[in-house]
Amino acid sequence: MVEHVRGASGRAELVTIGEFARLSRLSAKALRRYDELGLLRPALVDPVNGYRYYDRAQAETARLVAWLRRIGMPLARIAEVVALDAGTAAAEIRAYWARVEAETAARRELASFLVDHLSAKENAGMSNGNGTGRGRGTLGIRYAALAHPGAVRASQQDTAYAGARLLAVADGFGESGAGASAAAVDALKPAARGAVDAADLLGVLHEAAESSARAVHDAVGGAGAPAESGTTLTALVWTGERLGLVHIGDSRAYVLRGGEFFRITHDHTLVQSMIDDGSLTEEEAASHPQRAMLLRALTGGPEASAARPEVRLHDTLPGDRYLLCSDGLSAVVDEADVTRTVIAADGPDAAVSALVALAGDAGAPDNVSCVVADVVAL
Among 42, 86, 123, 125, which is most buried by a count of CB atoms within 10 Å? Predict the structure, then answer.
């Protein structure tokens, strides 16, 4: 027979852990574990025998905890979510899953690269007999960078950098945003000193991404700044044969090749995740009130250790033109206008000047930074 704890009215209010396990479709062992972890406390614990009693209304919360654990949500975040109202909890779960999908996509791209890379090595060895391939001649890059505070912001938190082996844009935010963006870019510079062998580039990129994450955490956390401070980072490391991409946040990288202009990065934002799952169109995203909400960035907060830039390799061709920019450009200037400007500009210097001017014509509500680089045969 099921035991019940009765109130003064005699009506059953609390049930034993065994009955509650049946109500919630969870095991008593799982419920005890949830109690130990602080995810779901019993409504009453008998001080004499230690028996746990639950309110029937807790069954829905118990099932929610189980579902969140099944999707891999960390325990600390589960504790926060179950304390929220339904609408806010739904938004938190959406944001969490969008981050999981972004990280999964980055790992998928890395796996695809490794398959292609190893297959290319095998094919080269079979065709040449000695594992060596035919060169394409010597390539180099011509580049320019320009950052402007814009017409509204009182300070400059963007960092734009262009050098012979490193192109980078970082968009800082929060109280220590300027320091965060500078730290992120500076941490990449050692990876671009001297020649980087194309075969070693992937490892170099991973080390550089780790260095940037640590540098931002130290710059922001070390200064005692709030966790909301941080930066995006989009960078390209040049080997003379390939470009290695380091990317996190909503700054962007584009390439102009054969007259076609296309983006090679994916925004780590809530709005982008909604576009990806079909719940929002590109047109709706442009005016969405949360279009600037980042799901991944480099910060000094408690989740900083989990946020790492994605890394990827890109083959290059003579004539390629690359654009890196903060959302001070991409969020305020129509992509068609950006495309026309990138195509028409006579060299990188002219391109960055024209692009910053476009942002100014659109009101320049944010800092704007651009880097343009042309791949040329030497």
Answer: 42
